[in-house]
Design a protein that fits this description.
This protein has 364 residues and is mostly beta strands. It has a single domain (3-363), classed as Porin, CATH 2.40.160.10. The chain has helices at residues 3-19, 27-33, 52-62, 174-179, and strands at residues 77-79, 82-96, 103-120, 124-133, 138-149, 153-160, 187-196, 199-206, 219-228, 232-243, 246-259, 262-273, 281-295, 298-308, 318-327, 333-343, 354-363.
């Protein structure tokens, strides 16, 4: 690497780290508190609209300082039977690809609104997740959720995110790209869930368009279970997508451990995909993450990812290492800054790129 390029990369890293960033509604926060995803989110598997507890946590614990008093506490409930919420993220992105000039741009990563109509409070509700940007307005979730036993057993039907592994905010993570089950790829189906003591488990059956969008529509079954303790948690996932072009099987394990102000978190997924090529292909992806709560409202995230696109081929692995600083100065405002370095086969410039970003995130 030339000294000029090294200087450029170091300069970008220094600039991004100096400008700071913010905590996300991510799995490490649940591990940090020793709670399940359902504690902070209306959706039992996490993500989307925040519950009354989740909104209270964002205002009293997540931010470095709070503006206003208890009388101004936002709960998300705008009327007795309706709760609303939203997310908006605006980015400045920088990318440097070998043998190309560096490029940067401004972009709206997402703008979403959430609605939960509590037809029967705490028992029956209709949930909607609508994305307004980027691009045209798109419905990502629209389902009915009925708690057979309050806070213990439920059934959900409609368009939803399938339960597989951890629901990371970064849908570009290798484990989310490999499984195809992320917050950009909902599916239509039905989900059964149990929240019993330390256990959280879900079983879903769907059309099969999520997880393998490149193949003909089939039928998919997904199972996820997690055991949660105050300082650690562990879980496993399995999915089978049966299509005319072949089967796509996925298994994964995930977990987290809290050691003082540091949360260690990881996931490993293995895919056996008969829809690729003549004899199919086995793929593997992993993610290891450490989050250090430096002070209230400040988090430093280090992530290392590994992707094996074909376990029968040597020296085709890809890695991605990320360093992100996150800062929540006040409630409902988050700033993030980070760099990501990709490393892949030398012949592919895109697999060896460096990226940086600054993000302003507003939510409620």
């Amino acid at each position: 690497m030339s000294s000029r390029r090294m200087f450029t990369r170091c300069g970008v890293v220094a600039l991004l780290l100096a400008l700071a960033g913010a905590a996300q509604a991510e799995p490490y926060l649940a591990a940090q508190m020793g709670l399940k995803c359902v504690q902070c989110h209306v959706n039992p598997t996490g993500g989307g609209l925040r519950s009354v507890f989740g909104n209270a946590y964002a205002q009293t614990q997540l931010a470095a300082r709070r503006i206003g008093g208890d009388e101004n506490l936002w709960t998300g409930q705008v009327m007795k039977f309706l709760s609303v919420g939203g997310n908006a993220r605006a980015n400045w992105n920088y990318s440097e690809v070998p043998n190309q000039s560096g490029a940067n741009d401004f972009a709206v990563e997402e703008a979403r609104a959430y609605f939960d109509f509590g037809v029967i409070p705490n028992r029956l509700s209709v949930y909607v997740d609508q994305r307004f940007a980027p691009g045209n307005s798109t419905n990502l979730e629209a389902n009915v959720r009925f708690w057979l036993t309050e806070n213990t057993m439920y059934v959900k039907a409609g368009r939803m995110y399938l339960p597989f592994g951890y629901r990371f905010e970064d849908d570009n993570a290798f484990v989310r790209q490999l499984s195809g089950i992320n917050m950009q790829a909902p599916d239509e189906g039905v989900e059964f869930g149990i929240e019993g003591g330390a256990w959280s488990a879900q079983l879903a059956f769907s059309n099969g368009t999520a997880g393998a969008p490149e193949v003909d529509e089939g039928k998919q079954g997904v199972l996820r279970a997690e055991f949660v303790q105050s300082a650690w948690r562990a879980g496993a996932s399995a999915a089978l997508n049966h299509t005319e072009g072949g089967d796509r099987q996925a298994v994964g394990v995930f977990g987290a451990y809290r050691a003082g102000p540091v949360v260690l978190l990881g996931e490993v997924d293995l895919i056996d995909d008969d829809t690729i090529g003549d004899g199919g292909r086995k793929l593997l992806a992993s993610l290891a993450e450490a989050n250090w709560k430096i002070a209230p409202g400040h988090n430093l995230k280090l992530t290392h990812e590994w992707f094996e696109p074909d376990r029968d081929v040597d020296e085709d692995e890809q890695t991605r290492t990320s360093l992100v600083y996150e800062w929540a100065p006040i409630q409902f405002v988050q700033l993030r800054a980070g760099v990501r370095a990709y490393d892949g086969i030398p012949q592919n410039d895109q697999q060896n790129r460096t990226q940086g970003f600054l993000q302003l995130h507003g939510f409620f």
